[in-house]
Amino acid sequence: MPILFWHGGAMTGVTWETTPDDRPGWSQVFLRHGHDVVVSDAVERGRASWAPFPQIYDSPPLFRTAEDAWYLFRMGAAEDFARRRPFAGQRFPIARFDQLCAQFVPRWTTNAKATIAAYMQLVARFDRVIIVAHSQGGWFAQSLAARLPDRVAAVVLLEPAGAPNLAPEEMARAARVPHLYVWGDNCDSHPAWRPYKSDATAYSESLRSRGGTVDTLDLPKHGILGNSHMPMMDDNSDEIASMILGWLARTRD
Question: How confident is the model at residue 253 (pLDDT cuts 50, 70, 90)?
């Protein structure tokens, strides 16, 4: 069964292809474990469609700075950006932080409908898929599970940026799809990530109340400390991939 890898905001499919310190990315890791993999770029990003503003898009793009990423990706305290002093025990290869930033592309926050439509067309190419999604991509993955539960076999959500607001009948459909939520370190104390995690947790509890299979891999609660918002790039990325592969195997048994 193919795995579709969906990236987060201001990112592209390169997220999954390699790490900033040149280790194999998860597309290779999952491929070597016998999965077909599909890496895509969302609408307006990277190798996907793009249109000029203001001629076609009705809002200007947003640009992520290195300072923004340092704070939002939980590399270290905001005031320590200039010195590049990370959190104690940080698992991201900080020496290659600027290499990560080189991957950033312009993004829009007004193209959700177009992105959902494009992802629906992608999923419809296959009989059944597994979606592994990161950050903003996790919001889309949760939405697609509710729209196409017969085609989505499972979703793995790496620190999703919140959750969609769905009608009860949509939630009932989504509950037919197993969900795994993965969280790194320093989320619960972070002003930006507390509400994202809270929204996703409430959504997961709603799925569970409807009989859905929902699991949470909160890494610090498992004694795995120091992970950033980029677990597929942290120095223990292979370990986390193995945990996800194990969950997928158990879910499909």
Answer: low
- Residues shown for the chain: 253
- pLDDT exceeds 70 at position 236: yes
Cis peptide before 54 (omega within 30 of 0): yes
Which helix or strand (DSSP H or E) is residue 132 part of? strand 129-134
Domain-by-domain residue ranges, the chain? 3-252
Helix or strand or coil: residue 15?
helix
Q: Is the pTM of this model over 0.90?
A: yes
Distance CA 40, CA 19 (A): 17
SS3 assignment for 101-118: HCCCCCECCCCHHHHHHH
Judge whether 56 and 49 are in contact, CB under 8 Å.
no
CA 159 to chain centre: 6
| Model confidence pLDDT, tens digit, residues 177-194 | 999 999 999 999 999 999
**If we measure between CA atoms, which residue out of 17, 3, 11 comes closest to residue 232?**
17
Q: Which residues pair with 62 in a beta bridge?
A: 107
- The pLDDT of residue 175 is 98
Rounded to 10 deg, the angle between the 112-123 and 136-147 helix axes is: 60
CA pair distance 203, 65, nearest whole angstrom: 30
Residues with Cβ within 8 Å of residue 195, at least 6 apart in sequence: 162
The CATH number of the domain covering residues in 3-252: 3.40.50.1820
Distance CA 56, CA 109 (A): 15
DSSP-derived pairing of the beta strands 214-218 and 179-183: parallel
